[in-house]
Amino acid sequence: MSVDVERLVAEALRGGADEAVAVYTELRSMKVEAENGRPKSAESGVRSGVTLTVIVGKRVASASATAVAVEPERLAASAVSAARAAGENPHWSGLPDPSPVPQVQVYDPEAAALGPEELSQLLRGMLGEAVEARVRVPMALVEAAETRVSLASSRGHSLEYRATSLSSFMAANAVEGGVVGSIAEDFYSTRRFKGFEEASTGLAARVSRWARESLNPEKVEPFEGWLILDWGALSYFLSAVADAYNGENVWMGSSRFAGKLGEEVAAQTLTVIDDGTLPWAPGTSPFDGEGTGRRRTAAVERGVLKSYIANTYYARLLGVEATGNSYGLLSVSPTNIVVEPGRGSPLEEAERAVYARYLTGDIRHEDGVVSVVVKQGVYLCCGDSRPVAEVSVSDDLYSMLGRIVSVGGEQGFRSGVYAPPIAISGVSFSPT
Questions:
Q1: Nearest-CA neighbor of 53 among 86, 26, 27?
Q2: What is the secondary structure of 326-338 as a DSSP string?
Q3: How far is it, in rounded angstroms, from Cα 372 to Cα 217?
Q4: Could you say which architecture CATH assigns to the domain 5-213?
């Protein structure tokens, strides 16, 4: 069931709103799961709902409903009533005007046509790649979804798109002679079917290998060396970096990047881009939560802070351009985080290092505190490599950005981050 978002906006204006935005979202999804190496369940469902945001004077409020329960007049009246009761936002300066919306690759008919049997076959293929006497697979899944989004505003926006998505996940550990290795896991997501099967079986083989390698890890004494972040660890690290150049956090005073546009904030080897137009990527869409067209924004270029990511509200406050990163009228979110490949080879260049596949703990953009534990790590020394027991790292995010000494030449992907391995020097490691 769809919702007439233009009617909702009209009802809000008729009810006393000065401005209004309505967004309808429908999600159809199917998922097959395995537990302990065996197929367990299959699920499918449809979720849909609408959010109406209204502005009365400088008072902003929202009301939401599921699609089946939408009564336009009542929802509009509820939103307007909430806005009149809300506190005034002295910084509010109006909705954005409509802007060009890019053509992006987000909908794949092949992905949309997949059914539970095809998903089950993909899952069985993943489990087949992980089969080995020593390897246990406590959880694996394959999921397909189709999303439809419609947006209308009192400024004249009338937009809609459909998108598909496919994802796979596996967690595994190894057992040998009574020794249980740590959990290895990996995740993959795309919007198209082409290449998905190969990527998913490759993921399963990789996780199985990591699980075997984690048996009998070596404990190391405290030392200082390079921290080499693999694709999984990078998704965690770079998400904190994205929080630092997020215009909402900059305006709120919770980022040390405030007031540093045009200044060097990282090593010259680092270029980080927010790209909401990347073909088939999970963070890609034609427009954001306020109807502004997505774009490619260089946040950090050769170590220099070039841009914040911002919606219209925070862009106006900061005196910069809106970058198509609206999560809502008053919030900002990254799309796809892309690190340009370098010419380095961190694994070959390191003399003494820990290669991290995962990180757990805290990386805070507010004060730069890094307090993490390296999971599924590999100790590199003197041309040799071997699994290492968990080690902890305490450092400063902003200092680490300046100590990046090598950026690899081959990009990988995890959770909306496209990046090659990155090496950071001068990191102190301690056994947990």
A1: 86
A2: EEETTEE----EE
A3: 18
A4: 2-Layer Sandwich (3.30)
Classify residue 319 as exposed, middle or buried by CB count within 10 Å of its CB (0-12, 13-18, 19+). Answer: exposed
Beta strands in 154-260 (DSSP E): 158-176, 179-180, 184-190, 223-229
In this structure, what DSSP letter does residue 367 have?
A: T
Nearest alpha carbon to residue 255 among 267, 271, 243: 243
Q: Identify the CA nearest to 127 among candidates 167, 168, 165.
A: 168
First and final C-alpha spacing in the chain = 53
Residue type, 9: V
Tokens of 320: 């910069």
Q: What is the mean pLDDT of each run of 10 residues along the chain (432 residues)?
A: 90 98 97 93 94 98 89 95 97 96 98 96 95 90 98 98 98 89 92 97 95 89 96 92 98 97 98 98 97 98 98 98 97 97 90 95 97 94 90 98 96 87 97 90
| pLDDT for the residue numbered 216 | 85
C-alpha 261/C-alpha 264 separation (Å) is: 9
Place of tokens 């306020």: 290
* Per-residue pLDDT, 133: 79
Distance CA 44, CA 34 (A): 15
How far is 432 from 430, CA to CA, in rounded Å? 6
**250 phi and psi angles, rounded to 5 deg:** -60, -50
CB-based contact 354:378 (threshold 8 Å): yes
Burial of 38: CB neighbours in 10 Å, binned 0-12, 13-18, 19+: exposed
Distance CA 328, CA 240 (A): 20
Task: Give this prediction's pTM.
Answer: 0.94
Domain segments of the chain as ranges:
5-213, 219-432
Place of tokens 């985080």: 337
Read off the tokens for 34. Answer: 């395995």
How many other C-beta atoms lie within 10 A of the C-beta of residue 46? 11
Element (H or E) spanning 7, and its range?
Answer: helix 5-14
Tokens of 342: 């370098």
Q: For the sheet with 337-339, list strands across it.
A: 304-305, 296-301, 272-275, 337-339, 417-419, 412-414
pLDDT in tens, 368-390: 999 999 988 999 998 889 999 99
Query: With the C-alpha atoms ordered 140, 198, 374, 249, is the resulting torsion angle positive or negative?
Result: negative
How does DSSP classify residue 183?
P
The C-alpha angle with vertex 259 and arms to 255 and 261, in degrees rounded to 5, equals 105
